Amino acid sequence: MAVAPCSGQGQALDPRFRGGDDTYSAGLLYLEETAVTEGPGGTPLLDIRDLAVTFAGRGGAAPVEAVKGVSFTLDRGETLALVGESGSGKSVTALSILQLLPYPLAMHSAQSSVRFAGEELIGASPDALRQVRGDRIAMVFQEPMTSLNPLHTIERQIGEILLVHRRMSARAAGERILELLRMVQLPNAEGRLGAYPHQLSGGQRQRVMIAMAIANEPDILIADEPTTALDVTIQANILALLRDLRDRLGMALLLITHDLTIVRKMAERVCVMTEGEIVEAGPAAAIFDRPRHPYTKRLLAAEPKGRAAPADPSAPLLIAAEATRVWFPIRAGVLRRVRGYVKAVDGVSLEVRAGATLGVVGESGSGKTTLGLALLRLIASQGRIRFAGRDISRLSERRIRPLRREMQIVFQDPYSSLSPRLSVAQIVEEGLRVHNLAAHPAERRRLIEMALAEVGLDPRVADRYPHEFSGGQRQRIAIARALVLKPRLVVLDEPTSALDMSVQAQIVELLRELQSRRGLAYLFISHDLRVVRALAHDILVMKDGHIVEAGSTERIMTAPEHPYTRALMAAAFDLAPAST
Amino acid sequence: MTAEGASRVAASRGGDRFLGRPISPLTRRRLDAFRANRRGFWSLWIFLILFTLSLFAEFIANDRPIVVRFDGGWYFPVFVGYPETEFGGIFPTAADYRDPEVQKLIEAKGWMVWPLIPFSYNTINYSLPSPAPSPPSHVNWLGTDDQGRDVLARLIYGFRISVLFGLTLTAASSVIGVAAGAVQGYFGGVIDLGFQRFIEIWSGLPVLYLLIIMASFVEPNFWWLLGLMLLFSWMGLVDVVRAEFLRARNFDYVRAARALGVPDRVIIRRHVLPNATVATITFLPFILNGSITTLTSLDFLGFGLPPGSASLGELLAQGKANLQAPWLGLTAFFVLALMLSLLIFVGEAVRDAFDPRKVSV
Lengths: 580, 361
What we know:
The complex is a heterodimer of chains A (580) and B (361). Chain A is an alpha/beta fold. Chain A is 35% helix and 24% strand. Chain A starts with 21 loop residues before the first helix and ends in a 6-residue tail after the last helix. Chain B is elongated and about 80 Å long. Chain B has helices at 3-12, 25-36, 38-55, 57-60, 100-108, 151-187, 189-202, 207-217, 222-233, 238-248, 252-260, 264-301, 312-321, 326-354, and strands spanning 16-18, 21-23, 67-70, 73-75, 110-113. At the A-B interface, helix 14 of A face helix 1, helix 2, helix 11 and helix 12 of B.
């Protein structure tokens, strides 16, 4: 788990101590009263006071204060959202509740207190904690693929929870497992009992995780970014499921997220966290309508804004694809004969003009990334691709190489797309070396520094290594690597998906600015409609390898025609679950 | 300022360096971790000192003096052979500096500087107090073997040749093994399948029998032995390197490099190979260990270097044949044990330094 170092004080407002503005403290006093004295049982179900977590520094590094004095309460049946960006300390807070941090590397301060139903959890014996975990407090994690054991069937994994806490017989457990899987609406539950996690889709795996979490009908369900790794329509369904289960089972829900749309839909109360402290807390409506703290205001305003600057419709056609097909053969049997094909991209035609952005929208599995890679000739495909009038679909790798200068790509994950062993300068100059664009090293250095300055980084960081930068900065380095070659077309494969909302907005700004300054054409692949809206002139909607709808951004955003596009819009902007 | 801080400052000045080459912070941490393992660090130094000394074996144990001043002229018998007549003797054959007559001739008109041990590995001491193998005395510090040759001199020369053989075999087989693994892992498909099947067959061939067969056509010397062992020992690293390459070729930064138009061989060298070097370097001291032991065992069995060459295995064989002369076996045993232990300690320290769970960035 990565923890970003917290530095600086910021404007910390511990709700219990600071006075300050009268109206503000009046609002918080109101909150205090309802939470402590008017709660159903008298004392709150979960009472966290002054929680502080410090990670010891390794190898001479300074210790990192991940959480600095966080306090909040959670009552029976209520939904609290802990909102913040990456590095704010919200996941660490959630893990502290169940004492799941890597002790002794992680340390709590002496005053930290986590009380569950009156019982102190910090420093509790392992037996006491085992009674609470999975039984009274359950947790759903962010990445379902890594949270499920890849070697056990889902029946066995859910059965494990029942066995440990309820000691059910095999038959009783079997019935309960089926009941749970039906509750989480896993399609064809009986048939999928023997399935392994890799045989399920992301949404299905998350349903299994939720089934494991609710198996013992816990009092509190902690959901740590439960839908971040999922598609937009699946997201809406999973959230509806959580809401439904919460109402049926009367659970309290602690929802940790950075996505404010989710908070709007799901939460009754909100705590906004940054740099290890809660800066604002209150009822959801109050926070959204009248945010007080500057950080909250910034967070609420951090959506990618604006629209793409109008493009020149008479600009020359830069890339045109006709009936592109990428079919992966399925080989089965002893002789590995081709039995069928996975049709990742099945007959897609598109055009991008210089200086314009084409947004390709779709969910995972729609084939949009494969399409982007096929257009750049990084994977084999059929169908004609013309770049600047020249047919590149049948060129050999050697003939394509000089053309690679003109078409570049920025990948999704800034953490894995930069080689960890090379310095930033070496990463950015790689293209320059291959294409011999600089006469001597000094010239190369100058070009590198210019590229870094253009993406908003200090040129002096050129000798540092990628691990010293944040996600947003790394993505800028990746963009610099693409730009230093002065390409005409840049394929952006979900460049902002792994980044926080405010950083996304900055990257979108940067891309827009670069486009207007350099006349670049973008092929922007994304599942996030808000970002696409801010950047694209035209949109293609893809599903299962086909284009479902195509048109200008305004037309598609305001009047989508195809039912799939409509469902996508509803799920993205409104979190409306699809009716299945 | 801590080592961390120093290296950060160095890095910010545009290059942390080790032995003159710029290194990354991760490499710096690995070097620091190696240095922190005192046992491994000192073992490395001791081994390097012993090896360097043994490289100058001709200056430490030789039956010729290092330098002779005779009649106003400088002579270097270590490098050049002089006839006896040069020093005023009768025979025009090569001067035998151990002969008291020749020594008298030289000392009459000059002086000479002898190496520490006045025996080479094949010098027979004819004036032994007891029949060979004779026990340690003040002339032969570790005694003589069953042909009257000084044990300590044979030890030094034998140590040198064992380590040189081991180093050469390790270096060559690592290079070939990494290259083979890289090609298989990176390109996959039919190349990988074919090569793997070839390796399966090739590794099934009996090396010892081939050596015996070879020994019946040619007299095996250092290079023949090296060549034959090389034919079979390169397969050790292939598996681990192939696995790393199979994994790394799907990484995003490799795809990014392809998108930039970087040719395959450059991608392999710059992006993927550093991932594989962790496993390779971790294995190297242990491969070196195995290579040294290989030569020793071959010599012990009699299939190694030609008779008369100094080697630890041959000393062990003599020790076995002459149990009444324990200094033979014991000497060889302790030297081998010391050498291999030093290498093992170094290997453990390297393994810990490269362990990604202990040292990461």
